[in-house]
Amino acid sequence: MPNVSTLTTEDPVLLVQLTDSHLFAEADGSLLGLRTADSLQQVIDLVRAEQPQVDLLLGTGDLAQDGSVAAYRHFRELTGSLCARARWIPGNHDHVPNMYEAAVQSRLLDPVVDLGNWRITLLHSNVDQKSHGYLEDSQLQLLAQSLSEAPDLHHLISLHHHPVPVGCEWIEPIGLRNASEFWKVLDRYPQVRGVLWGHVHQEFDQHRNGVRLLASPSTCVQFTPASPDFKVSSEAPGYRWLRLQPDGTLQTGVSRIPDFVFEPDYSANNY
C-alpha cells in the first residue's frame, strides 16, 4: 500500500531529487579528487536555504560508491537534517541488501507514495555488478499495477537508469536495456506526467508524447554533456526540485552550489 500524506488534492507537492552521491564508508572518501560527503553536505545546505518545505526527498541511486552499510547510514543521517519524507532507489554502484539494512525501521525503500493529487512510483533498475539497467518482470508489473489502480492521480515515475538516449555516446550502452518494455507500459496510461532518473550526472529535460523526461546533476562530480568519451566537467554539484501542481502540470529546475571550484583528478580515477 502507498504511503498516504496529509496533503490534500488541492495542494502542490514540492519534491527534491538528490542523486549519485557516491558516498564511502569513510567520511573523507573521494571520487576523482572530490570528497563526496563534503559536496553532498553543501548541496543539502543549499536545499535547506532554498526550499523551506520539502514534501518528498528522492535519492535516485548510487547513494554509495562502495555499497557499504556505513555509507547508506551516512546518507540517511545527512539527508535527515532536511526533515522531509524520503524514498531511495538503488543504482548500479549500490548494494541492495546493505541499503535495506541501513533503511531498517523506515519506509525509505517503499516503491509507491501518494502525495496531494500525485502518485510517485519508484523502480529498481539495477543489475548486480553491472553498469547498465534492466527492469525485471516484477518491476514492470509493479509499474502497471501502480498506474492502473490510480487512474485519477497524476503520475511521476522514477528510476536510476536513463530510458532514452541523453546525447553522450559512452553513456548510452549503460542505460536501461529494456526501455522498450518500460515504454510499452507507460504508453498505455495517459495520466503519466513525468519520468525522472539519475545515473548520467548531468541535466536533461525533454518531452516524449507529452511526458516530461528529466535527469539531474550529481551531488558530486558531473559528466560533460554530449561527450563521446568519459569526461568529467568542472560544473558544480547540485539538485533538482520539482513542483507538482494539482492540475498535473510540473515545474522544475536545477540549482547548483555557488562559487564551487573543482578540477577532476583523473589519476585518482576510482569511478
From TrEMBL:
Keywords: Hydrolase, Iron, Metal-binding. GO terms for molecular function: cyclic-nucleotide phosphodiesterase activity; metal ion binding. SUPFAM superfamilies: Metallo-dependent phosphatases. Residues 16-202 form the Calcineurin-like phosphoesterase domain. It holds the Pfam family Metallophos. It comes from the Bacteria. NCBIfam families: PRK11148.1. Belongs to the cyclic nucleotide phosphodiesterase class-III family. This is Phosphodiesterase.
